[in-house]
Amino acid sequence: MKNLTLTAATIAAIAMSTPALAGDAAGRWQVKVMGTAVLPDGKIDKVLVDPGLPAGTDTRADDNYVPTAAIEYFFSPNVSVETICCLTQHDVDVATGPLTGGQLVADRKIIPATLTVKLHMPLASGIKPYVGAGPAYFIFFDEKPGAAARSLLGATKLAFNDKLGVAVQAGVDVALGNSGFGLSLDAKRYWVRPTAHWSNASGAEVLATRHKLDPWVLSAGVASRF
């Protein structure tokens, strides 16, 4: 993760030192509206407070499909910085072990605040593949204990720690004519390890786990550059 962050910082430094091209016909800004599949892992990385979970217990997070928007600024024709806007919701269930099927987390909402620096590689016919990398800060809110956490652990409250991670991406923009309008395909992979804390009505912590959230985020949509 440190190496990926350093790589993103290096690309950003190069971008900042590259003179902007006045009168760029393609425009400095690009906005994308996309449909996105958020495909998290959700396995347990470490149990920090163990109430006696059965051996072999592990978890998974469910997938979600959401609209997303991206805003991108081009420092030069082939170097840009991009941020995305997205809200996604997930449950976490027991995937293996005697408690399989039990729900530990209900309706967890996530804002994956992401900033990537991208290197574009134009080909013929308006096809422009790209790669990128950068930091991602996952903000969790409105999470609730699932039915299994309430019945088996007596949990009445759940909190996830907001967490800094890293994202890498690859994709392609395809121009449709010379108007700045086009199509876009994008794939991101995140590495992030949030910690979940379940507590009971008296405030005592009954379970704490760190999870490999590590989602794939796959998007397709339209883009407008101006």
If you had to describe this structure to a student in words, what would you say it looks like?
With 226 residues, the chain is mainly beta. The protein is 10% helix and 61% strand. It is built from two helices and 15 strands. The chain has an eight-stranded antiparallel β-barrel. A four-stranded antiparallel sheet has the order 2-14-13-10, with no helix packed on it. Strand 13 and strand 14 form a beta hairpin. The radius of gyration is 21 Å and the shape is elongated.
Please estimate the helix content.
Answer: 10-25%
Radius of gyration equals 21 Å
How far apart the termini lie comes to 34 Å
| Oligomer designation | single chain
Strand order of the largest sheet: 1-4-5-7-8-11-12-15
The secondary structure category is mainly beta
Shape: elongated
* Total beta-strand segments: 15
Mean pLDDT: 90
Low-confidence stretches: 1-25
Helix-strand topology string:
HEEEEEEEEEHEEEEEE
Percentage of residues in DSSP E strands: over 45%
Output the number of helix runs: 2
Main beta sheet: strand number and arrangement?
8 strands, antiparallel, barrel
